[in-house]
């Protein structure tokens, strides 16, 4: 099997077959593109999501916190806490686990979330450190935003720059090999992209603003996230490559190694659909968060406009990060 997410059809078949119980108190169920489940507890709702970190070596503890809390934020609510599972290979030492937990604790402090519990073990089942977190959030009843809420004619907005996560992982894990194309200043700047991985602020602000759908852009990049939102919402989209925000550092790496930045893992950027993208962009930028309108939700096809030509967007494949890592090893 290919490294990365399962094929969409295979994953959907597994999910559909295994979901034998549907409780009435589960308002939103996780599924393709719907990373969170929302559980009704009367006047309040509990939002839960889980994800592992497998593609990074450095900063894996930091990334584990943020990718999971970002899922909660994509529902427009603040995360409350996380549960942490660490599976360490036999060649690990206690210092390795301590370092990961120090990173997790530091990032949890920044987000004001509690480490609620978890599990840690050394096992032959893995050959590198695997960290999996489950994040929990709390919101008012019927207020959580879903991935499947995008509506025809919505503006499509993305926050900050794409590929912050992928670029940060590449530079932190393969600094020596990238010195040929990046200056020392650019390397330091790219390492600092890890500081902008959280989308909790824009998620909560957008939830209060009132939007139709949100999805944090993770494995599979922007086109993968768009495909998942469109599939979940039963709509199409039309986005314009020249409106998509990328840093020059990301462009340099992607050009050198023939990596598609639109399919490159992009935690740090939120995908949002709303009836008034310009107003949302203004609000976010007033709060110090860069945002861009990149296209429209449509009735039918999944279209990327590149150099004036229309390209049909296909289902998500293995993330470009795994391809880049193979090239840099």
Automatic annotation (TrEMBL):
Q: Which residues form the PurM-like N-terminal domain?
A: 33-137
Pfam families xref list = AIRS, AIRS_C
- Provide the transmembrane region boundaries: none
Domain PurM-like C-terminal: residue ranges: 176-301
Under SUPFAM superfamilies, the record lists: PurM C-terminal domain-like (SSF56042), PurM N-terminal domain-like (SSF55326)
Q: Which Gene3D superfamilies match?
A: PurM-like C-terminal domain, PurM-like, N-terminal domain
Q: Which domain of life is it from?
A: Bacteria
According to its UniProt entry, the protein's GO biological process terms are: protein maturation
The entry's family comment says:
Belongs to the HypE family.
Give the protein name, as stated in the record. Answer: Hydrogenase isoenzymes formation protein HypE
Highest classification ranks of the organism: Bacteria, Bacillati, Bacillota, Clostridia, Eubacteriales
């Amino acid at each position: 099997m290919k490294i990365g997410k399962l094929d969409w059809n295979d994953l959907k078949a597994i999910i559909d077959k295994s979901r034998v119980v549907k409780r009435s108190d589960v308002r939103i169920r996780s599924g393709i593109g719907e990373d969170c489940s929302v559980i009704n507890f009367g006047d309040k709702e509990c939002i839960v999501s889980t994800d592992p970190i497998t593609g990074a070596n450095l900063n894996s503890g930091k990334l584990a916190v943020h990718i999971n809390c970002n899922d909660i934020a994509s529902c427009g609510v603040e995360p409350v806490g996380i549960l942490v599972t660490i599976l360490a290979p036999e060649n690990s030492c206690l210092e390795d686990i301590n370092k990961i937990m120090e990173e997790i604790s530091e990032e949890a402090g920044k987000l004001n979330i509690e480490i609620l519990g978890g599990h840690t073990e050394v096992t032959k089942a893995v050959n590198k450190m695997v960290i999996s977190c489950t994040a929990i959030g709390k919101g008012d009843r019927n207020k959580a935003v879903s991935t499947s809420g995008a509506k025809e004619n919505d503006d499509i907005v993305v926050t900050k720059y794409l590929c912050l996560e992928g670029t940060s992982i590449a530079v932190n894990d393969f600094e020596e090999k990238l010195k040929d194309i990046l200056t020392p200043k650019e390397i330091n700047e790219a390492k600092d992209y890890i500081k902008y991985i959280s989308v909790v602020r824009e998620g909560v602000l957008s939830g209060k603003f009132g939007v139709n759908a949100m999805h944090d852009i993770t494995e599979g990049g922007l086109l993968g996230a768009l495909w998942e939102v469109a599939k979940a919402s039963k709509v199409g989209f039309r986005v314009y490559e020249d409106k998509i925000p990328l840093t020059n550092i990301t462009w340099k790496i992607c050009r050198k190694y023939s990596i598609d930045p639109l399919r490159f893992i992009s935690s740090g950027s939120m995908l949002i659909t709303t009836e008034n993208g310009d107003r949302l962009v203004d609000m976010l930028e007033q709060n110090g968060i860069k945002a861009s309108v990149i296209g429209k939700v449509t009735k039918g096809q999944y279209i990327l406009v590149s150099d004036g030509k229309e390209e049909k967007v296909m289902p998500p494949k293995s993330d470009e990060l795994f391809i880049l890592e193979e090239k840099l090893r």
